[in-house]
Design goal:
By secondary structure, the chain is mainly alpha-helical. The chain contains 17 helices and 6 strands. Strands 1-3-2 form a 3-stranded antiparallel beta sheet. A hairpin with a 6-residue loop joins strand 2 and strand 3.
């Protein structure tokens, strides 16, 4: 459906007025803010009028031009330029925004009190939220998307409608994370472009402070360190692929047909696209977007350093030009023989030549390049299949995270055996690796299905004091 078949013909006219668009936009946001503590977008006309009048008074706005003359005449006003009290001016703004041509507001008579109420239309609410978002963008929590996806897929059994509550929710969060990360990459690009035009060290420093203190870089740091997607990706991808099983697939198709009101073949295609797109983003596109953001951050830092050097060298060149100018002026003064007419204070400005010397500590001796005295050769050694496999296994073992959550679950289960609980003394802590395994087991205890109960006393090891504890199954 065409949007212009839904909104009134003059819906955007108040914002297209060059002289008053700011006033109309502010008035809409003032009205929208009045509904924060209301249960509906309906309020007495007097309250809306008083709020707008307060805004007009605070900003010393006494006249508004370009108000539709015909709409004013219908209410008994013939002047096109309003020069009246703030309350009257606020009432005229309400009439304009409530007109059928604009349609931001709607005015009705209350059946019980016969008073006049102002209702924000759906289009007016959407426009007010858009203006608010453009002026004050919300801080995005990237990690919340990943948490929502993970928690939804892990707890699929608690949802009745597996299409709406699980698949559609996961797809929505994956798409939202993709959009916000792309926005982040674009925002960094804008900072880089602004950096190129910085002219002074002061403005350059402010640019750097805005970057490092910005909410977006803090959230990016959290996303790449403590809340990295690698912690959840394996489980997320496994659960997404499990949605393709025959039993769950049939249930998804049935729920999708009911929700979207589409035929079975269309629902099957719809579900397959959502699952494949979510997997493709989380398993591939996410890493490429993050790599692009990291590249832009490195470019930003390189540009910052380069810009600082340019500003410094630029200032140095200016000082050189000034010295050159003063020297030429001094030579002209000597040539014209007007030294007697120049005061001593002025003549000292042209004393640019200084007696300097070079000592041995300031001399840098050139380094002698190393020469190849003898030709050497080394025999090639061919590795057998067993050597290659052994080397490969060694590298994989080196890269393996021995403190991962699943590894800690197996470690605690092996220590506990058939028992229901163990205490701190049951953990071997003879070396650093065993100590770290004990600490990692406590960190992942709740997620692995265990409860940690602290006890009185401490264990002393490696110049550390560790609180005694009990670890038992839930």
């Amino acid at each position: 459906m065409n949007i212009f078949n839904i909104i009134p013909i003059g819906f955007f006219n108040p914002l297209s007025s060059g002289s008053n668009n700011r006033v109309y936009a502010d008035c809409l946001q003032v009205i929208y803010a009045e509904y924060d503590r209301e249960i509906t977008f309906k309020m007495e006309r007097e309250r809306i009028r008083d709020a707008i009048a307060g805004y007009l008074m605070d900003n010393h706005i006494e006249t508004i031009e370009e108000i539709d003359e015909q709409s004013l005449k219908q209410d008994g006003y013939a002047e096109k330029t309003l020069q009246s009290s703030y309350l009257e001016l606020a009432s005229q703004i309400i009439r304009k925004l409530s007109s059928s041509e604009v349609g931001w507001l709607d005015e009705e008579i209350d059946d019980a009190t016969y008073g006049r109420n102002i209702i924000m239309t759906e289009q007016g609410i959407t426009l007010a939220e858009l203006l608010e978002k453009l002026e004050k963008p919300e801080t995005v929590e990237f990690s919340s998307y990943i948490y929502n996806i993970y928690n939804t897929l892990v707890n699929t059994d608690q949802y009745e409608d597996i299409y709406v509550d699980v698949l559609k929710n996961v797809y929505k969060n994956a798409k939202g994370l993709s959009k916000d990360l792309k926005t982040l990459a674009t925002f960094i690009k804008k900072i880089i472009e602004r950096m190129i035009h910085e002219e002074t060290f002061e403005s350059l420093t402010e640019n750097l402070l805005d970057y490092f203190n910005g909410d977006f870089i803090k959230e990016y740091a959290r996303l790449t360190k403590r809340q990295n997607i690698r912690t959840f990706r394996r489980v997320i991808l496994q659960r997404l692929n499990s949605l393709k099983t025959e039993e769950i697939r049939e249930k998804l198709i049935l729920c999708c047909r009911k929700e979207e009101k589409i035929p079975e073949d269309k629902a099957e295609e719809y579900i397959e696209d959502m699952i494949d797109n979510a997997i493709r983003f989380l398993d591939g596109d996410y890493d490429r977007i993050m790599s692009d953001i990291k590249h832009k951050i490195n470019v930003y830092l390189q540009v910052a350093v380069g810009r600082a050097r340019f500003i410094r060298n630029k200032e140095k060149n200016i000082r050189g030009d000034i010295e050159r100018t003063l020297m030429l002026l001094g030579e002209e003064i000597d040539y014209l023989d007007i030294n007697e007419n120049v005061s001593d204070n002025i003549q000292t400005l042209f004393a640019l030549d200084e007696n300097q010397f070079i000592d041995l500590s300031s001399i840098s001796y050139p380094r002698r390049s190393q020469t190849i005295r003898e030709n050497g050769a080394q025999e090639l050694v061919e590795l057998s299949e067993a050597d290659i496999k052994r080397t490969k296994d060694a590298f994989e073992k080196e890269l393996e995270d021995i403190y991962a959550k699943d590894k800690m679950s197996e470690y605690v289960s092996r220590l506990m055996g058939e028992r229901l609980k163990i205490n701190a003394d049951d953990f071997p802590i003879e070396d650093k690796i065993q100590l770290l395994k004990m600490l990692s087991s406590i960190v992942y205890a709740q997620e692995n299905g265990y409860v940690v109960e602290p006890e009185e006393g401490y264990i002393e090891t490696e110049q550390m004091l560790i609180r005694k504890f009990n670890l038992k199954r839930k």
